[in-house]
Amino acid sequence: MDFKRIQVLLILFFVVFDLYLAFLLSERGSFSQTANNAATPVNAVQEMKNRGVTIAPYINLNQDQEDLWVLKNTPSGELRANRQQLINQQVSIDPEGILTSHFDQPVELDISLGREGKSSQLTQEDFKWMQENILSDPSLFIHGDLYTNAWYLPQDKIIICRMVTPELPETDGQSPKLTIADSTAEIRILLDDDYNMISYIQTYQAPMVALEKTGPLISSYQAIETIENRIDTTLPNDAKIFSLSLSYYQSVATSNFNIYSPAWEVIYYRQENGQAQSILVDALKGKVVESKNIMQ
C-alpha cells in the first residue's frame, strides 16, 4: 500500500472519529439538560389546580412567614365539676372528660337556618343570636360563651362551635385570637329535621399562658405544598378548599400540662358527596399532624 493511500485512510478515520465524539458530546448535553429539567421544583399548588382541585377565591395563598407563641395550660375537670348546672338534659362524661348531652325536649333556635328560601349557611346574625341566647345560658352549656368560632355542616345538620385563644397579657398584645382546631375545645350541636337542638358533645380547655415565641412559621403556600406532596394527604380531584387559617393544636398532652402549637388548618369538601375533611399542618415543623373526617 503506498503512502498516499495510507494518508487518505488516516484522514477518513480521524473524520469519522471526530464525528463520533461530537455525537457523544451532544448526547451528554441532552442528558444533562433532561436531568436539570427533572430537578426543577414542581409547583405543587398549580399541579393541584390542574387536577381539578379548586381553592375558594377569598383564600389568600402567600409566602408570608409569621411567628406566634407556644401556649400551655393545665388539664381541667371543669365539665365534670359543673355538670349539675345543666338542666332538662341527660348528661354523661367519659374518662377522658368528654361531655355528651341529650336534651329532654328539642330546643328551638330562632335563626334563619333551615327556613324556606334561606341558604344552608349559618350566618353571622344566626351565630350572634346563638351566643346571646343559647351558648351563654349556663343551664344549657358550661362556659358556652367561650366558644366564639362557628361553622355549619349542612350534610350532617351539625353546628360546630370552637374555643378561641384569648389575647395574653404576657405577650404585650402580640398574641392574636386563633381557633383551637383539633377538637379538644369544641361543642358539636346536632339538629333535628326542624333545625332544633337535640344533643351535643363538648370538650373544654382551661385558660392558657404563653411559653415562648416561635421562630418563623411556614407560609400558607408551604402548608398546601406539604399536603400535596404526601401520598396519604393528596387531595382528591373533586376537592374544594374553603378554609385555610392559622390555628392551634394540642402537640403535647400529659397528666400535668398540655402544650398547644401553631398549625395551619385546611378544610375542604368533596363536591361529589359534600363530605368535609380537615387537615392540620404543624406550622413550625412543616408536617401533617392530623387528617380526619369532620364527623370523627
Automatic annotation (TrEMBL):
It comes from the Bacteria. This is Regulatory protein YycH-like domain-containing protein. Residues 43-283 form the Regulatory protein YycH-like domain. It holds the Pfam family YycI. The keyword Transmembrane helix applies. The keyword Lipid metabolism does not apply. Keywords: Membrane, Transmembrane, Transmembrane helix. InterPro entries: YycI-like. One of its GO terms (cellular component) is membrane. Gene3D superfamilies: YycH protein, domain 3-like. The chain crosses the membrane at residues 6-25.
